[in-house]
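Reposting from the mailing list since nobody answered there.

I have sequence plus structure tokens for a pair of proteins and want to know whether others read the tokens the same way I do. The first protein:
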Amino acid sequence: MEQFAAWVEAIGTIIAAIAETPSFRWSLSQMENLMLWGNVLQATGNGLLADLNPPGSKNQIGNIIQSSGNSTIVASLLFDVTKSQEQLLTVQGNQLQALGASLSLVEGLEQGDIISIYSNALQAKGNILQAEGAKRNRKDWSLAGSWIQATGATLAAIYVTPNE
């Protein structure tokens, strides 16, 4: 189940990163749909991962916070909000994701789990860059942050997938 949850999250981050990539020339509607589904998948993957961690652990709380961040971004896309409200929700959603990844990073440090450290550091850094990009209207920062986050989530999914 951990593999499934990690890959759901990773696929969600990749879809969201693809949505931000201008070379694909998405219409606004297509981009928003991809962002919506990417964040729904991320929230689902993080929610499942939270359920698989020991109650009260930093990883459980971190995954809950990350899922809340993705849900905040989903709300910004689904509800009828102004552009400034959408921007604020996007910034806050990415900040929550960064906070959650940082909490999981701390648990990785405590356990000496190098892959957990790297994957969560990449995700936190990517989310921070996305939040700052949204705040400053820097699409290049948001794009870079999306792909950095996707790299971290994919690294985590590969790590929990056993070699056969």
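The second protein, same order (residues first, tokens after):
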Amino acid sequence: MTRIRALFVANRLWFALIAFVLLFVAAYGFPWHFPLVQVGFVVFAGLVGIDAWLLFRPTADSGNRTDGTESFFARRDVPARLSNGDENPLTIYLENRYFFQVDVEVIDEIPFQFQRRDVLFQARLGPRQTQTIRYGLRPTRRGEYSFGAVNVFVLSPLGLLKRRYQFESGRMVAVYPSFLQMRQYELLAATNRLSEVGMKRIRRLGHSMEFEQVRPYTTGDDVRTVNWKATARRSDPQGASLQINAYQDERSQPVYCLIDKGRVMQSPFAGLTLLDYAINASLVLSNIALQKQDRAGILTFSDQVGQLLPADRRSGQVLKILELLYRQKTRFMETDYERLYTSVRTHIRQRSLLLLFTNFETVSALHRQLPYLRRLAKDHLLLVIFFENTELRGLLDQPATDTEQIYLKTIGEKFAFEKKQIVKELTQYGIQSILTTPQNLTANTVNKYLELKARGMI
């Protein structure tokens, strides 16, 4: 029964059967053709039998096994965890152990969350040949994903029958916040190439008095820190190179990412919710803060205060942040800023940089929460990060051709103006803010953090 379930009919066999049916029908008009068609059909039936024997015949690799499961081998290589919002590489390894060339069709049963039915690959492998198929998957939700089997349909050179092999059945893989993006920023920061992903070099407006080293001048450094004696002592055949005094940044400053899990963060963009964009940016920002010797912490909130991870910079802090962000769940209820303020005042006693990831669509929505934001800004350096409506921007960039479009653009201009008005309102009360598109959230947030640190505000 196992072999029968693994046996499938190829298209070539169906076409051949249709041709024989037509030939048998035509033989009624030409009786002398009938014996020839009969002989041809017997030969065809023999070829089908030979094809089945070739596919199910045990190979030398199978030893004493009679099920032939060693005639072909496949393996799916999946990372131990997937990165949310990123293209994750997957590979399927194929090995032909038949003594003849085979054509294969590979159907990978990927998790249902991807809603894809096109993960079908075709390949041709010679005898004892191996081949690797590479493709990518981009998850848009955190959580556990269940992979099914790798189905491999093998056809012999006759191509009349298929034999199905199944490998790698029932594997669970967790989708974490975007650790690939975190690693990218970490690598670029280590090699001073952050400008490649939108990082700006911020001119230092102030510095601590703790001397670190004398190093060559680079564009953006404060000219007031030039060390003229070190410059004069340096002998450079290609010309004098300015030397500057470098000072250490203020370290061990608490940096908290406050993540709003309320209704306003449910809006989707490119498959991800604004909440997932905020979670990915928080992971990157926390890692950058730890690289700068600051202490990073997380606080999540909605109608209730969620989880709080105190700011720290010990070696395992990144893993703690990653696990906390991975396990975040929400019902997207209305946000309670009063509970947020109470929790911050109770648990965060030291003056800290608070990066509040939220969203305001109108000025009136801001005014309802402004008293609590002002109280937070009184005790801490508060940075409010909210989102630009990209769909609205696309509408405003298109020319209006009729009355309805003029009306829609007018309403759109009103909402776009309110977003800018929110920035002015926050600035008026001494609250830092970022208005950004979702795709630029991480770069703009890290830029602002580096700017605040360069100005000595934290």
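Reply #1 (J.P.):
I read it the same way you do. The chain is about 35% helix and 25% strand.
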